[in-house]
Amino acid sequence: MAKIKLDLHGIYNRGDSIESELSRVIREAVEKGISLVEIIPGKGSGQLKKHVLRFLDQGHIKALYHRIEKDDKNFGRIFVHFR
C-alpha cells in the first residue's frame, strides 16, 4: 500500500503554508493513485488538528477522498483514505 506522510510541525504557525501543503499532498495522492495520506499536526493544543479537519471538510476537497480516520492511539495523527 502506497502512503504519503505530511508532518506539519515545521509550518504550524503559517496558515497559508499549511493549506498549500495540504492541497499539494491531496493533489499528489490523487494524481499518483496513492491510497493513504498520513497527516501529522501534532498533539499541542489541538488547534492545528482542527484547522486540518476544517480544510479536509471543504466540499471540493472532500470529494477527492474516501474517508478520514483519526488515530485513536495517537491524537496527533490523521489518516486520509483514498479509493
Structure report:
- With 83 residues, the chain is of the alpha+beta class.
- It has a single domain, classed as Ribosomal Protein S8, Chain: A, domain 1.
- It contains three helices and four strands; from the N terminus they run βαβααββ.
- It has a four-stranded mixed beta sheet, covered by helices on one side.
- It starts with a strand and ends with a strand.
CATH uppermost class? Alpha Beta
- Total strands: 4
CATH architecture: 2-Layer Sandwich
Q: Looking at CATH, which topology would you report?
A: Ribosomal Protein S8, Chain: A, domain 1
Distance between the termini: 12 Å
Q: What is the approximate shape?
A: globular
> Order of strands side by side in the largest beta sheet?
1-2-4-3
Strand portion, in percent?
15-25%
Count of the domains = 1
Taking pLDDT < 50 over at least 5 consecutive residues as the criterion, the unreliable ranges are: none
DSSP helix fraction: 25-40%
Number of helices: 3
Mean pLDDT: 90
Order of helical and strand elements: EHEHHEE
